[in-house]
Design goal:
Keywords: Amino-acid biosynthesis, Arginine biosynthesis, Cobalt, Cytoplasm, Hydrolase, Metal-binding, Zinc. InterPro entries: AcOrn-deacetyl, ArgE/DapE_CS, Bact_exopeptidase_dim_dom, Peptidase_M20, Peptidase_M20_dimer, Peptidase_M20A. Belongs to the peptidase M20A family. ArgE subfamily. The two termini are 43 Å apart. The longest helix has 23 residues. The radius of gyration is 24 Å and the shape is elongated. The strands form four sheets. The chain has a six-stranded mixed β-sheet, with helices on both faces. A four-stranded antiparallel β-sheet has the order 1-5-6-16. It has a four-stranded antiparallel β-sheet with strand order 11-12-10-13, with helices on one face. By secondary structure, the protein is α/β, with parallel strands linked by helices. It is built from nine helices and 16 strands. The chain has two domains: 267 residues, Aminopeptidase (3-Layer(aba) Sandwich), CATH 3.40.630; 126 residues, Alpha-Beta Plaits (2-Layer Sandwich).
Amino acid sequence: MTTNAENSEPASLATSELGGKAIDILAKLVAFPSVSSAANRDAIAYIADYFGELGASVLRLPSEQAGKENLWVTFGGSTDGGIVLSGHIDVVPVAGQDWHRPPFVLTLESDKVYGRGTTDMKGFVACVMAAASQIDSSRLKRPLHIAVTFDEEVGCHGARELVAFLKRTGTRPAAFLVGEPTGMAVVDRHKGSVGFTTEIAGKAAHSSQIHLGLNAIQVAAELVGFLMSLGEKQKGGRADEAFPYPYPSINVGSIRGGGVRNIVAPVCAIDWEVRPILPGQLNEIREAFSEHVRDKLAERQRWGGLVPEIVTQLVYDTPPLIANDPSEARNLALQVSGRNQTLAVSYGTEAGIYQEAGFATVVCGPGDIQQAHTADEWIEIDQLEQCVAFLQRLFEHCSDI
């Protein structure tokens, strides 16, 4: 049987009161079509009002990016040593996907709830909001913070602005728990995600007189070949066997250039990405590529004739999360979850940004990453139940009981 949140009781499939509350809240969050390209202020206002009614200190942090805000919520005072629960509410687009359910209406079927962002990662935010209704700030030994950021899906811009806010205000939390989907396992390492665009400028000419032009696609093809060989070369270096693919990877995602087949292409652009695992790997790859470009340009200059212009721009930079054993975030998450080991995942999150800024960080949240970004995205209700139970134990740990 299929129903949706507008004409049924979303909480009816939950097994606990807080689980039902989380589903009710999730229905409201999913209804905000908070695609990264759109403003998020209406969704942030809803979440801010909710926490304000619970008695928390609430700061809406406007960005210079039009219509975008971070949210910083505090229970229990503003002293150092607090615990941060971090999530984002921007989602990827649904255009071009074959949805069989309305993406921005929560749909309940059997043991799952469907809708854009249910797994990545409004489900976690809804669980935090539901569980926070049980917080008694007067009993907290340390502050509890909730961070809600924007534009994680397009470069983690909100997380970087949040770090700047924390540094500006001198706020020093002891641990960050990022609620990206891990099936509630504790993740203390993941790959980074660093995107580049390399633009090549050549010279147009008719294909009957190619000697008068400089084909930017031809130059790009040689650079792509070098990037592929450089990726293969990583297999001979340092590895982390915790990952399914234990080496840093290089991927060329798109090539754009030329116009018609009988004109020498004057321009071409390559979009490529590096997924580093360990410190220093990104810099090694960037320097190897830059050195190759310098050598090729110098070689062409020695030949005489036309020399292309090659410019590489950094588009986004999400650093890896690196195992830092022991850390307060790792120890706390393992203790509260009742687990005795951590995992590694291949996808990236905001966690690497927080760790890079000096904050102990792990990832732990409900859902399966395989459902993220998909048509008919869903999360199991049991995962939401597990998350609110985890959060209840965390809040108890931070209280004076």
